[in-house]
Amino acid sequence: MKFVLAYTLCSAITGLCNTTMIHPTTFDSWSECAKGGATVTIQLNNKYSEKFNEQKLYLTYFCNEKKGDNV
Fold it and tell me: Phi-psi bin for 8: left (phi > 0), alpha (psi -120 to 50), beta?
């Protein structure tokens, strides 16, 4: 069974969120997917820390079972 990671960037100031994005990598377990979400959050925060501070950005993420393909 494979899992896909979906995440959304939101602003605590406006209350608005961008369109949910799907991470290009699939994961072999729920745990790996959850760790992947944490990693993406940290990477984006580090890369865009000034924007995160100015716009009070945060990332939400979730994992879903990948249906079909069995890849």
Answer: beta
